[in-house]
Task: structure prediction
Amino acid sequence: MGNSSVDVRVTNQEAVIRARGRMTFVEAHPLRKFCVRMMEQGVKRYILNAQHCTSMDSTFIGVLAMVSLKGKGRGVRVEICGADDQVSGQILGLGLKRIFLFHDRCGRPTGAGTVLEEVGERGEVRETMLEAHETLAEADAENEERFKDVLTYLREDASS
Result:
């Protein structure tokens, strides 16, 4: 995970999220907290700059899907720009084409970003992982079967 990072900047009711390196559940938890806070503040446009992202795990993708689906009735949209074939394939392979807007190019970032570094406690991270995978299952029926074992494990772990 070493050189992976997520930095964010918020301007004019849009949040630009820049992902660098391999995005996993470690980066997904602070991203979830950030996005929930921004949604509460009325931010409607989330742009994930994936130009320097090498891969995304299902938890990270699930957090992005959660933002899109939770905000759907409020005019929230999630856009992904600059994703290479691998990252696009990881997202599209989960049946999520209809909930994101894809752009080949990203606009130039303006201003300094804030790096999301918070490390959550085990229970909080597990909650993020569970919500992310439940969102993926909600977004595409095939994901229910794909993540059946993960969902079972996370639900059982939550109740113990």
